[in-house]
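Side project, low priority. Logging it here so it doesn't get lost.
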Amino acid sequence: MKKQYAEDTYNQEKCNRNMSIDKLNQEINSSRLMFIYLLLILVVFGILWYYFSNWILEKL
């Protein structure tokens, strides 16, 4: 009985540890994805700024 309880407790702790590691991996993946989106937005904004400023300078 005690051996079964100890084994169940060990398996539960192992499962909880794996679940917390999976949750941490999901948070890391989502933050990495948000960083990639931010870089993409900055690149697009920079390209638009470059062409818009050249267009303004040609008009002057």
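Brief comment: The chain is about 95% helix and 0% strand.
Revisit when time allows.
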